[in-house]
Amino acid sequence: MPRSKGARLTHRSLLAGIEVSASGRPVRPGDVFFTPFPLCHVAGYQVMLHHLFRRHAVVLRRFGAAALVEAARRHGVTSLSLAPTMCAPT
């Protein structure tokens, strides 16, 4: 199996990614963002973006549909990111 390659992001690149995320998915007052993706995933920008706006972000350690629903209800999630395969019936 090939080894994963790391990539370094500059501070400017990181801020640009957050800015683009903000333009496509604005953060509103009272938002609680939820992601089951690792923070190294491109969806990790959303976590930083919500923290920048002093909004809550919930990160699921490992994806599981039941755990996602339970955590979303418990934390009052208003926005989340999922991949299409996460929504497929098992």
The helix/strand class is alpha/beta
The major pleated sheet works out as: 3 strands, parallel
Number of helices: 3
The geometry reads as flat
The gyration radius over C-alpha positions equals 14 Å
| Assembly state of the chains shown | single chain
User: How many extended strands?
Assistant: 3
Query: Strand arrangement, largest sheet?
Result: 2-1-3
Assign a percent range to the helix content.
Answer: 25-40%
The portion of residues forming beta strands comes to 5-15%
**Termini gap:** 27 Å
Average predicted confidence as pLDDT? 85
Q: Return residue spans where pLDDT drops below 50 for at least 5 consecutive residues.
A: none
Spell out the helices and strands N to C: HEHEHE
List the main descriptive attributes of the protein structure presented here.
11% strand; 3 strands; 3 helices; flat; three-stranded parallel sheet; alpha/beta
Describe this structure in words.
- With 90 residues, this protein is α/β, with parallel strands linked by helices.
- Helices cover 38% and strands 11% of the residues.
- The protein contains 3 helices and 3 strands; from the N terminus they run H-E-H-E-H-E.
- Strands 2-1-3 form a 3-stranded parallel sheet, with helices on both faces.
- Helix 1 crosses helix 2.
- The model has no long low-confidence stretch (mean pLDDT 85).
